Structure formats: C-alpha cells, structure tokens
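Please supply some protein, with fold tokens.
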Amino acid sequence: QVQLVESGGGLVQPGGSLRLSCAASGSAFSRYHMGWYRQAPGKQRELVAAMTSGGSTSYGDSVKGRFTISRDNFKNTVYLQMNSLKPEDTAVYYCNAFVPYSSSGYWGQGTQVTVST
C-alpha cells in the first residue's frame, strides 16, 4: 500500500506560479512511475504530467512549456512546478503512483488549485 499526500495548492492570480508537492510512503519510491492529474468541475480527470522511474517525462498538451514535473527520490516526493497559470488550470490536482512490479496504482486525496483575479 502506497500513501500519497499532496500539498501546495491554493488561490493564485492569472500569470502566477505554484508548486505542488506529493509525498509518498514506502521504501521503493524510486521504482514508482509518478504522475499528476487534474479534474475540473463537470470534466473528466486528465493527465497533466508524468515521470517514469527512469526519469522520462510526458505532459498534457495544454500545459506543455508551462508546467514541469520533477522528483526527489531521497525525499520520496514528486513536484509539479506550474508557471504562467491560466483560469482554465483551475481544478483539483491529484498525485498518482504506479508500482510496476505489482501493477498497482494509488491516488492522493487531491489539492485544489484556483486561478482567478
């Protein structure tokens, strides 16, 4: 069982920045594939950014060039740096961990990001 705890959400003005953090339990964090997803009201959950255990990254089209995913395997933490935020980035952001050797996926509880004046 992997527990994920997100933090760093909040209210920010358009054009601003936020950094989300997701702390994971377990001693094999470096072997997890990690991702950030978001869900806006009335919309489906969508991929924002992902990073494999090997460090390969992928991003949703709407955030490319503005968001950056990174991880610190010593701190068991994955980050999402969000720059040039837009009102359409408003959503609940969820951290996801995929454990390849057990084919198990885990979700955090989510953190609200609101981009508004």
